[in-house]
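INTERNAL TRANSFER SHEET
From: sequence group
To: structure group
Subject: Pectin acetylesterase

Please process the attached sequence and return the structure record in the designated field. Keep the field labels unchanged so the import script can parse them.
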Amino acid sequence: MYDNMAGSRLGQWLCLVVCILILLKAEGASIPITIVESAVSSGALCLDGSPPGYHFEKGSGSGIDNWLVHMEGGGWCESVESCVSRRDTFRGSSLKMEKTMGFSGILGSKQAANPDFYNWNRIKIRYCDGSSFTGDVEAVDPETKLYFRGGRVWQAVIDELLTKGMQNARNAILSGCSAGGLAAILHCDKFQSLLPATARVKCVSDAGYFIHGTDISGGSRIESFFGQVVKTHESVKNLPASCTSKMNPELCFFPQYVAQTMRTPLFIINSAYDSWQIKNILAPTAVDSKKEWKDCKLDLKKCSATQLQTVQDYRTQFLKAVNTGLGSSSTRGLWIDSCYAHCQSGSASTWLGDKSTEVGDTKMGKAVGDWFYDRSAIEKIDCPYPCNPTCVTVDSES
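Return from structure group:
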């Protein structure tokens, strides 16, 4: 009898495991990584010298000629030392990346959860260079064995996707989150130039609108940090010439200067209180020696009245930078919430779920779809914190 019970339980467990695997597959949780082997010959390599990779779920039906290319985020390395520290991680080596990945949010494959893009060709480019896909240094130090080749990585992946059908795209979006969201802005016009002139091509930046802001000391640590990123990776050659020809090229790592001369329509998804920006642009640890901002940065509810006013002033800085960059362009799209969040488009719960964040009664996924297909102009700017009861807390870099 014990054997029969054990066998029955084993059968139930096996059935459960199979059901879970089927569900995961249905949710797109087992999309394999594709390594761009051809990138080796062009030197388009991750920090450690391994070839780059991406995950690709093919389109179907009405979406077979539509392409959504999303770039992963994950910060930057601004010096040889910091790049060495990420070289042997999944942020610097395709050898360390997971072999499969699930898609959700803007990349989701369920019609109900992602009605405008669910059946498109959907790609996530993995991030392994630390420069928002802009670096291009020919020399490789024999001691560190670091490859600063992010710009080449981007081009190699795009070239491969073009051969897989993207050269015939009817609709296309270049998107990304965080450092990938910045890359979506920096590479937007170039992406558009590689696709058919008849294609509808637009770009979407999620949590990538990093501003040239003033910190609590009155300085701008982010300016020196981004400047070091650009110098270390020799990024200037891959920043938009429409910007670098007009100002200090290193400043063209900031979206507010690049966006001014962009030709391709751009949609900004961002919190005016972006958690990464509050922690690293407004109140970086380097200028908070007494750690007075430590608790406030973790939870805005713990800010003093004075600190909260400083945070509100940062919102003003942010909105001004958005208007400086995008002006009154008729092609711009804005969905700017007041949640303490970073990267909100990659999750089904924040993209178009039943309880997703709303700005002006509009959820993010609907806003992007309406804007892309020109169903309506979208300029949604939330009221000041803490006014929005629909906020969903998200703090990721994917």
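Handover comment: Residues 2-26 form the longest helix (25 residues). The radius of gyration is 22 Å.
Transfer complete.
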